[in-house]
Each structure stands twice: as C-alpha cells, then as structure tokens.
Amino acid sequence: MSKVFKLSPTSRPLSSSPRQTLDGIPESPDSTLGPRPCEPSPEIKNIMVTGGAGFIASHVLDRLVRWYPEYNVTNFDKLDYCSSLKNLASVDWRSNYHFVKGDITSSDFVTYLFSEKKIDTILHFAAQTHVDNSFGDSLDFTLNNVMGTHVLLEAARIHGVRRFIHVSTDEVYGEVDGEDVTEDTVLAPSNPYSATKAAAEMLVRAYTKSFGIPTVITRCNNVYGPHQYPEKVIPKFICMLMDGRKLTIHGNGQNRRRYIYATDVADAMINILHKGEVGEIYNIGPGQELSNLELARSLLRAFGRDPDDVNNLEFVEDRAFNDSRYAIDSGKLRGLGWSPAVSFQEGIAKTIAWYRVHGLSWWGDISSALTPHPLKQLAQVEFVPPVIAGTRSSFFPSSPPQSAPNGVAFGGRLARSSSIEYGRLGVTLGKRTSMDQQTSLYGTSS
Ligand SMILES: NC(=O)c1ccc[n+]([C@@H]2O[C@H](COP(=O)([O-])OP(=O)(O)OC[C@H]3O[C@@H](n4cnc5c(N)ncnc54)[C@H](O)[C@@H]3O)[C@@H](O)[C@H]2O)c1
C-alpha cells in the first residue's frame, strides 16, 4: 500500500566547514559529520520542522540542513522558554535554512506558511514536553500538543503534503514492568503530558485513515545531550552539580528510564524521513537503562563527588504519578538500517563538557528549572457566556494573515485574546511569557 522513498547509502563527502560565530558560540556540538545515511529523495523539496529551536529538533536540523543542501528547510517555532536560537548556530547562515517565529496552534498562519513555502514534508517536534509542568498546567499541553497537531494535520490535508513525520514518545505506552513493548501495544498513558501525546497520535492515525495523509509516527526513549533545557533530569543534575548543590531525587529514586544520545535520535529521524513506511510507527531506542538513583550516583562520580555520601542527595516528594519504567523494542527501526552509535559513557562525557561551558548561561535565568518540581502556573478556569451558534471561535480568526512589504509576516493570531473558547466553558490561560510571545510579530528571517 505504501510507497517507500528510494535510497541507497552514499559515501559522498560532505562539506561541514566548521565556523565560529561572532559571539563565540561554536558552530555545532558535533560539527564533524560523517557521510549522510540516505540519498536525498526526489519527493522532498520543502520541509517544515516544528519546534526546531528546542532540544532534539535542533540536532535534527543540524544534520538535515548540512547533509541535504538539496532541501529547503523551514524551522517553525514559537520560541518558548526552553528554546534557543543559539541551538541553530551551525545552520542559521545557510541558504537552505529559514526560521519563522510562530505558533502551530495558529491555524491561519500555519495554512499561509504551508502555501507560501510550498511545504511537502513535515517533521513535527513542537510540543510542551516536561512531565512535571503537565501536572501544573495540563491545559497548555492539550492546547499545544493536541490542538497544535490537529492544526498541522489540517494544513497538511489542505495542501496535500507528501510526508508527515509525527514525533511522539515512549511514554504513551505507560509504565512497562515486563518485556520490551512493540509498536502494536495498546497505549496506556498515565500523566497529562503522555496523554496529550497519545491523543495527538490518535488524530494523526485518523487523518491517515480518513484522508490518506501519509504519516509516520516515532516513539522515542528519553533523550539527552547538548541544548536540552535543564528542567529535564540529566542537564538539571549536571547544572546542580556545577553549582555545588546536592541532587534532588523524586520518591525513592527507583523509577527507571532509558537514555539515548541526541545525535543518535537525529540520525534515526533522518532514516525514518527517508525510509519509513507510511502508516507505520517506529520505536526509537534502546537507550541506557538506569534508575534515577543510579543516574544521580553516576553523575556524582563524574563530578568527583562521593555517590554514597548522603549529603550529596536529597529525597523529595514524588511526582503526582511516576511511571516505574519505560521499555520499548526498536527492532522495527533496526530493519531500516539504523542503530545507536554513541555509548552512554561517551554521550554523558560530551554532555557534561557542553554544559560546563554553556549550561549556566545558554537560556538566561534557569533557577526555576533547578527546583525539585518545576510547575508552571495553573490555568484559571472561569465561566464565560455561552458561545453564540454560528460565530467563529477566536481560535480560527477569519481574517487572513497579512504580509508586510519588508517580508515580516503577521500571524493570524495577532488579534487573538488570551481567552480561548472551548464550547461553553471558557478557559483563560494564566498569563505567561510563552502566551505573551504569541502576540508578538511573527518575524521571518532566512
Ligand atoms: N526530550 C525527550 O526525552 C523526548 C523523548 C521522546 C519524545 N520527545 C518528543 O520530541 C519532541 C521534542 O522534544 P524536546 O525535548 O526536544 O522539546 P523541547 O521542549 O526542548 O522543545 C520544544 C520546542 O517546541 C517549541 N514549541 C512548543 N510549543 C509550540 C507551539 N505551539 N508552536 C511552535 N513551537 C512550539 C518550543 O518553543 C521549543 O523550541 C516533542 O514532541 C517530545 O514530546 C522528547
């Protein structure tokens, strides 16, 4: 039923021309690239990567833009608290890379961009990603992860894209106490973050069945490496250790996770983009499995601190719910010719080296991320009068986006209020920087 892109391995030499940017940011944490793993596909011309200023997608962009000068790549990101344009220093000056600031929930703007950039391929990473935050402001997760994905799928349907790669997570399976689970396992998410990721997947699959949208879904282990905002456990522990602090452990520290290095995941995504079969799901793993306590102790050792000294560890209240373990089988992905190349020892050494230089300054003030449970403000729920039948929701403004003569595009949500109507229940999201940013100009640069 599905058509697979034709490819063959290539040994074509690649110019990676290392460059030092003006403000001294190194071009890339991994500026030497080997040969690209797949030949360029004649079906791909204009790719949109959502969430490209975040952690994983910045590593994908680093490879995609440098390996494939044949592709025009647009990075579409709202620049939330966890992102940084510094993550793109290796590619932001290249002619096949473009950045557009905007929000995937902005239907008019997304549709406009698809048409303007003639998008044929989507790599969809943008999401609210931190489980702890999802216990605080879970509505924001539904908005960004579910509604945002739905808006992209609609744009993909209208514009007839050729490939829609949807990035999901191993957390959609819920906790796994026994054998590694395969892609056909029933989903059982247990926290608001993973529930919204599973909900987004349902929409992706429905759009494939209903409208024939050529989608592929990925479900990955925990990822670590340079560029990861220090709310996630590995960079958080590294930053705490650099600051001379003790490490805070949720609950008894026995919850287990598997960790895979960012460039391995980026290579997996490049393989799936070119070789993945439409309608398929690919688990991405396995990473190194460690309990939180084992992880903390290995990082203490790496910083020359005694892992058995109780003064180096502080056990704090557990999450509202904390999956005991995730364990996925990635045999199907191996069948595409990919396997992880970076050992945990090597990856963690590279990660520590990067954070020692950049960790405390890359994102500005990270103090709120280094708390045991960083929680975003809860949404305030209030009653608003019923929506009058026939009126359009403020979510889908009727006016088309306007373009200024200087090439600066104005997003369709400029006029959007912070009050979002869900049927008869009005939900006003607490004012936060990320929401405020959406009402700024959506500038484009290339
Ligand atoms: N980090 C992990 O361990 C991991 C594991 C498995 C799957 N994933 C998935 O991979 C993807 C990327 O994760 P990450 O850790 O790199 O994320 P991240 O939090 O580092 O970055 C997310 C990016 O998305 C952008 N973004 C968020 N909402 C947006 C919106 N509405 N419009 C436009 N941009 C928006 C943010 O500005 C940010 O740049 C996510 O879909 C996540 O669920 C992550």
TrEMBL record:
<feature type="compositionally biased region" description="Low complexity">
    <location>
        <begin position="7"/>
        <end position="22"/>
    </location>
</feature>
<dbReference type="GO" id="GO:0008460">
    <property type="term" value="F:dTDP-glucose 4,6-dehydratase activity"/>
</dbReference>
<dbReference type="InterPro" id="IPR036291">
    <property type="entry name" value="NAD(P)-bd_dom_sf"/>
</dbReference>
<protein>
    <submittedName>
        <fullName>dTDP-D-glucose 4,6-dehydratase</fullName>
    </submittedName>
</protein>
<dbReference type="InterPro" id="IPR016040">
    <property type="entry name" value="NAD(P)-bd_dom"/>
</dbReference>
<feature type="region of interest" description="Disordered">
    <location>
        <begin position="1"/>
        <end position="40"/>
    </location>
</feature>
<keyword id="KW-0520">NAD</keyword>
<dbReference type="Pfam" id="PF16363">
    <property type="entry name" value="GDP_Man_Dehyd"/>
</dbReference>
<feature type="domain" description="NAD(P)-binding">
    <location>
        <begin position="48"/>
        <end position="351"/>
    </location>
</feature>
<keyword id="KW-0456">Lyase</keyword>
<dbReference type="InterPro" id="IPR005888">
    <property type="entry name" value="dTDP_Gluc_deHydtase"/>
</dbReference>
<dbReference type="GO" id="GO:0009225">
    <property type="term" value="P:nucleotide-sugar metabolic process"/>
</dbReference>
